[in-house]
Design brief:
- By secondary structure, the protein is an alpha/beta fold.
- The chain has two domains: about 5-155, 3-Layer(aba) Sandwich (Rossmann fold), CATH 3.40.50.360; about 165-350, Rossmann fold (3-Layer(aba) Sandwich).
- It contains twelve helices and ten strands.
- The strands form two sheets. Strands 2-1-3-4-5 form a five-stranded parallel sheet, with helices on both faces. Strands 7-6-8-9-10 form a five-stranded parallel sheet, with helices on both faces.
- The chain is globular and about 55 Å long.
Length: about 350
């Protein structure tokens, strides 16, 4: 198997010098081809991709902007692809936000992302301080190692399918008024009989947010499958996450952000993440906005669950809709077709 390196030409030559060196060292011995311009994205369906994005000091790459537009115009452009990302900047800002934007665009164009798909090089590389210490090398050495490891996973990993996968659904909504719940209920009908489904409601009063325990304390309780603050996360959610092959997050758009309880769930997941990675678990989402901004919430799921917590991101992982009044979502034009497509995508991802 080989990799296609999507490497948009930087606006100024110096902006790509460090990334040139990192890629040269990290991809030595691997077979790969390079796409530098937006027009070269055509014909990549089914391939393994590594997007390497040099941002310079402004957080902008004009050729990448052309690629982004191309991805958004062609929803099947990268059908069947699997990708990772390397984002390199001259300062301490913009690398992660650019990566989240790129990841969602790739995904909506039909591309899956491996768990923890991002290697970011900030200007100082201080984000590699812990890895460098653990590896016994310098910051640049840790950067090279991270890209080399990511390239290997992008090229070789495949998501495992199951005879009868277990799907965990997490929400914090009222069944009586939630458009998000209405959409999930229709999707659930398509999954029943092929998947074992468990729903857990994280309503007010049942879930306390992470209180920021010291790293060693969090690691101590995580190694025992728990958390210092206990409660529904330790007793119900952690065991369900460990058993699940996929999570479906039901995400109404609250003030252009994930709901407080879903955010608390993600924060508290850190203790379990200390113990294990989630590369073999997929994450899906149903996002409903009252007026606009569904893509903002979807990017937050990508950042938190795929980039940070290492869940596999299947192609077209999110159903993103706009509906305000209770019951409105199920009357949207074309919604039945989109629900069928989303449900079938879950089955195609998980089931043998």
């Amino acid at each position: 198997m080989s990799i296609t390196l999507i490497y948009p030409t930087p606006d100024v030559g110096w902006a790509g010098q460090r990334l040139d060196d990192v890629l040269r060292r990290s991809l030595t011995g691997r077979e790969f081809r390079v796409a530098r311009r937006a027009e070269e994205l055509s014909g990549l369906a089914g391939q393994r991709l590594l997007l390497a994005l040099p941002l310079g000091d402004t957080g902008v790459n004009l050729e990448y902007m052309r690629m982004l537009a191309w991805l958004r115009k062609e929803p099947e452009l990268l059908q069947g692809c699997t990708a990772g990302l390397v984002v390199d900047g001259a300062g301490e800002l913009f690398t992660k936000s650019a990566a989240a934007e790129a990841a969602l665009a790739l995904n909506m164009a039909g591309c899956a992302l491996v768990g923890r798909p991002l290697v970011e090089g900030t200007g100082s590389l201080v984000n590699f301080a812990v890895q460098a210490k653990n590896l016994g090398t310098g910051l640049m050495g840790a950067y090279h190692h991270a890209v080399q490891e990511l390239a290997g996973r992008v090229e070789e990993e495949t998501f495992p399918k199951r005879e009868r996968p277990q799907v965990l659904v997490l929400h914090a909504s009222s069944h009586h008024t939630s458009n998000t719940i209405d959409l999930w209920s229709s999707v659930r009908e398509k999954l029943e009989g092929r998947c074992t489904i468990r729903e857990i409601g994280l309503r007010n009063g049942t879930l306390f947010d992470c209180s920021g325990c010291p790293y060693t304390m969090c690691l101590h309780f995580g190694e025992r499958g728990g958390c210092f603050y206990g409660g529904v996360m330790r007793d119900e959610v952690y065991p369900a996450v460990r058993a699940a092959d996929a999570l479906v997050l039901l995400c109404p758009n609250y003030n252009d952000a994930l709901s407080a309880n879903l955010t608390a769930f993600i924060n508290r997941l850190t203790a379990l993440f200390r113990q294990t990675r989630f590369y073999d678990k997929a994450v899906f989402a149903i996002v409903v906005s009252g007026y606009s901004g569904g893509d903002v919430v979807a990017r937050q799921v990508v950042s938190a669950m795929n980039m940070n917590k290492s869940f596999y991101l299947p192609q077209k992982f999110a159903l993103i809709e706009t509906a305000n009044n209770p019951g409105e979502a199920l009357s949207l034009p074309g919604i039945r077709s989109r629900l069928d497509t989303f449900g079938q995508n879950i089955l195609n991802t998980l089931c043998l």
